[in-house]
Amino acid sequence: MKTRQIPYKIYLSEEEMPRYWYNVKAHMKVQHEPFLNPATGKPCTKADLQPVFCDECIDQELNTSDEQIEIPEGIRSFYRTFRPSPVVRAYFLEEQLGTPAEIYYKFEGSNTSGSHKLNSAAAQAYYAKKQGLKSLTTETGAGQWGTALAMASAFYGLNLDVYMVKVSSEQKPYRKEVIRTYGANVIPSPSDTTAAGRKILKEFPGTGGSLGCAISEAVEKATSTPSCRYVLGSVLDHVLLHQSVIGLESKTALDKYGITPDVIIGCCGGGSNFGGLIAPFMGEKLQGKNDIEFIGVEPASCPSLTRGKYAYDFCDSAKTTPLAKMYTLGCGFMPSASHAGGLRYHGMSPIISRLYHDGYIRAVAVEQSKVFDAAIKFAKCEGILPAPESAHAIRVAVDEALKCKETGKKKKILFGLTGTGYFDLSAYKKYNDGEMSDSIPTDEDLAKGFASIPVIKA
Amino acid sequence: MKTRQIPYKIYLSEEEMPRYWYNVKAHMKVQHEPFLNPATGKPCTKADLQPVFCDECIDQELNTSDEQIEIPEGIRSFYRTFRPSPVVRAYFLEEQLGTPAEIYYKFEGSNTSGSHKLNSAAAQAYYAKKQGLKSLTTETGAGQWGTALAMASAFYGLNLDVYMVKVSSEQKPYRKEVIRTYGANVIPSPSDTTAAGRKILKEFPGTGGSLGCAISEAVEKATSTPSCRYVLGSVLDHVLLHQSVIGLESKTALDKYGITPDVIIGCCGGGSNFGGLIAPFMGEKLQGKNDIEFIGVEPASCPSLTRGKYAYDFCDSAKTTPLAKMYTLGCGFMPSASHAGGLRYHGMSPIISRLYHDGYIRAVAVEQSKVFDAAIKFAKCEGILPAPESAHAIRVAVDEALKCKETGKKKKILFGLTGTGYFDLSAYKKYNDGEMSDSIPTDEDLAKGFASIPVIKA
């Protein structure tokens, strides 16, 4: 093993934990276009959003001027139960690859939700409680977001209804059970608890549901219930803001050892992890203070950045949300089977989309069998069994390190290890049994998705 | 929340991590009786044990004189991937209980095996590799030990055959899959790969297997394969030695803040976690340097300390192992259904048994529904979903803290949180559905077990 001036894990002390989130929009020369109200075609106002979201989150969503936004003590207090998370120097992976590169990863998976999702769940539940609300609703597919929000709701004392895609609640009974254990109510969607659910049940009896339908039900429940709001786990600006705690901790940890990464890599589904990881580093880049390369990694089965269009589109497949200007495969795009449920999203965070459009971010799409190759290589030498989503970042970090082996460059690579794969073992089974396939959409598949993008008058 | 002079989590730096394990036997005035060879009735020699175990582990097993035994750099290096583990001040649990007590817990669950088992798996795999062996065998029931050994074997480059109780491999397919993902071979037991397995299959076709049978197969495979040894995850002295890293880290962390616990609590199955947690504190107590109360917690369904006999008995139900003097319910005792698979063991570590017999340890048996009450209370305020085994310690820590509420005493309570419950959600489901039962053996049940204890001539 190389001489270890840098410890295997860099932990921050409680005093070193961030007191402010980092709002990268304060340094963006060009802001992303505003959300549009689909009924009027006009930009959404705070009043448009208030029936759905908490007030404080809306203010954060619309804030383009303040670089620093304070993390209230009530949130920092809960953060201490699962943060700081370590920056790990992947000495054993480096050794196995025989690379001159230095590889670092920020590990967000050692909390019960198993991922970074808890960073924003904590904030959104806190603000709901502070606003005097009694309950929250949300949807969940793979279940990590539902688990995170159940944990946060239990901590702050809020009731929670989780609309879980019916087929997921049947295929992932244990995920459902974690959510129930934290006291939340899991409702397989479509359900008869909402008009939207009843309509779909009537039209398609026996359907397994969809994320789009679950969103519709959760929003309806929130807007029709007193003292209740809806919360979302990715895509939106305020979610990326909360996730900036990942990047801030990473930067403080690396700064302690005088390390500036040459490359930062993160997996990209809705963009919350990647946006949070890169936030403070990107802020500096936008000010000309560094020349870091940022790489967003998406699955080849759902390539919104690398093959999508930059257009106004609905955030959900049921076409109930405001319109966002983003890279999208079309709200009607159906990604083919993939084990990275958290990356199967047709769109992309408007912030990430804007930065990508303006050339600050590079995007790479990777095939899932190669992702699992890297995941297992990583697990065997670094110990952690990664989530399939996170393993997308591992794949590209390994590829970058292998390039360094060829060129002899000693690049410093930082990637985000967003979570663990403990609830994804059916995917690992497929891989272990040699039954994993890659499914890459054809141009015809994409064309069908693009046809679902609404036509907006300029 | 109370004034926080003590941080929520106390982490050690790499430099503060232990360089030596702590051998509590060096301070025991009375050693436990030696293992006996069942064929001869005479104490086991190193030569008796060498066909089964690694040489270095046997030396450690028989060492009663050295307080400090060095942890080789090759093990400390792997330890850095998942250690140090934090000592957490349970501020939120204290607040919810309204207790004047200070509650601390040492959390061993944030590695992929999900428990403390990796501490000894690492050491045993390292020594096997150092001895030039090619492969290891073991048995696993619930699967935590099998996972830990698969991780360690992958890290050190050893082949591993895990004999997994057939019914467990069917009921816990995901545990099996983690083990396979780390490259180990999982063999549902009984199998046709050993004479012991073939015999049982012939006598009981269609049987779901048992831990006793899996041990027999693993030992046979080890002793009949060149360059192969068998490894065990609990009970034995060298396993407790490796687990002393838990207690050593806890003591260093608490010493930094001038804290000496009044009570230390751990769950007790084979005794490896409890023995490791208390080791350095007990060593001081044996030297008259502290007056800490040590409480071992066992399930009411399998009460080896509180209702067992102190006698020589086989370590396995198949009666193939050396005889150990320990608290036992009889190697033929069948514990009734319980969700804490790791605590369903008829015997107890000879070290723990001796210390208990000599009055240095108190034991408490708790019912599983009350254990789950405490587990869920803990999860909701401290975030971590505990393993059912670990929750036994939570139950008694909560009870001690509630006593302090009555008496006004500000006791300092430390307990071991050995692992997470991510693979135990069928147990949580039972609890959430109101279907959990407590099953306490009757005196008649115990008498049947006691009848299986062999009669040893003095």
What does this structure look like?
Two copies of one chain form a homodimer. The first copy, chain A, is of the alpha/beta class and 458 residues long. In chain A, the strands form four sheets. The first copy, chain A, has a seven-stranded mixed beta sheet with strand order 1-4-5-15-10-11-14, with helices on both faces. In chain A, strands 8-7-6-9 form a four-stranded parallel beta sheet, with helices on both faces. In chain A, helix 5 runs parallel beside helix 6. At the A-B interface, helix 3, helix 6, helix 8, helix 15 and helix 17 of A face helix 3, helix 6, helix 8, helix 15 and helix 17 of B.
Give a quick summary of the entry:
Chain A is of the alpha/beta class and 458 residues long. Chain A is built from 18 helices and 15 strands. The first copy, chain A, is 41% helix and 16% strand.
List keywords for this structure.
homodimer; 18 helices; alpha/beta; 458 residues; four-stranded parallel sheet
State the strand order across the main sheet of chain A: 1-4-5-15-10-11-14
User: Of all protein chain pairs, which has the greatest interface, and how many residues does each chain bring to it?
Assistant: A-B, 44 and 44 residues
- Largest sheet of chain A at a glance? 7 strands, mixed
Overall mean pLDDT score of chain A? 94
Q: Structural class per helix/strand content of chain A?
A: alpha/beta
DSSP helical segment count of chain A: 18
Q: What is the general shape of chain A?
A: globular
Cα-atom Rg of chain A, whole angstroms?
21 Å
Low-confidence stretches of chain A: none
Query: Residue share in helices of chain A?
Result: 40-55%
